[in-house]
UniProtKB/TrEMBL annotation:
This is C-type lectin domain-containing protein. Residues 49-157 form the C-type lectin domain. Keywords: Coiled coil, Disulfide bond, Lectin. It comes from Synaphobranchus kaupii (Kaup's arrowtooth eel). InterPro entries: C-type_lectin-like (IPR001304), C-type_lectin-like/link_sf (IPR016186), C-type_lectin/snaclec_domain (IPR050111), C-type_lectin_CS (IPR018378), CD209-like_CTLD (IPR033989), CTDL_fold (IPR016187). Residues 3-30 form a coiled coil. PROSITE patterns: C_TYPE_LECTIN_1, C_TYPE_LECTIN_2. One of its GO terms (molecular function) is carbohydrate binding. Gene3D superfamilies: Mannose-Binding Protein A, subunit A (3.10.100.10).
């Protein structure tokens, strides 16, 4: 009698363990699925051009907030060094968006966020004109200076991890 009761307890215990195992397996499978979906979502929102990946925002913000958003993504506001990059950025996403370009530190001295000087040929005709104190750079066909507190979508760049 005692033996059969013990057998029953063992069986119940084994069943419990089995159901806990199944539960855990299902939850792990769910988490893996979520991770995979998140990963592909993030990958699909970055576009590759040359040796860089570009992220085009779906929302608008001030230049400073846009700069912070890029940093939060492990990236930087995009910098344009070549005609090819200019053409790519002008044709992707919205027609106008913030770039990593400003003359905030010294009025009239334009610099990319990496400290380099923008190629003069990349400015739109008549720009930069500092009309109404414009210290931040956007792409609008070509480069234009604009008031930093204006709201624009933005584009981040990061190098492809090797
Ligand atoms: Ca300025
Ligand atoms: Ca301007």
């Amino acid at each position: 009698m005692i033996n059969s009761q013990e057998e029953k307890n063992k069986e119940d215990l084994l069943q419990n363990i089995q159901s806990v195992e199944e539960n855990i397996s299902a939850r792990i499978a769910e988490q893996i699925k979520n991770l995979w979906q998140f990963g592909s979502e993030e990958n699909s929102s970055w576009k590759r051009f040359g040796s860089k990946l570009y992220y085009f925002s779906q929302t608008s913000n001030t230049w400073e907030k846009a700069r912070e958003q890029c940093v939060a993504m492990g990236a930087t506001l995009a910098m344009v060094k070549t005609d090819e990059q200019m053409a790519f950025l002008a044709n992707e996403g919205t027609p106008k968006h913030w770039l990593g370009l400003s003359d905030i530190s010294t009025e009239g001295t334009w610099k990319w966020l990496d400290g380099s000087i923008p190629d003069k040929r990349l400015w739109a005709p008549g720009e930069p004109n500092n009309e109404g104190e414009e210290d931040c750079g956007e792409i609008n066909g070509r480069l234009n200076d604009l008031q930093c507190d204006r709201l624009r979508p933005w584009v981040c760049e990061k190098s492809i991890a090797i």
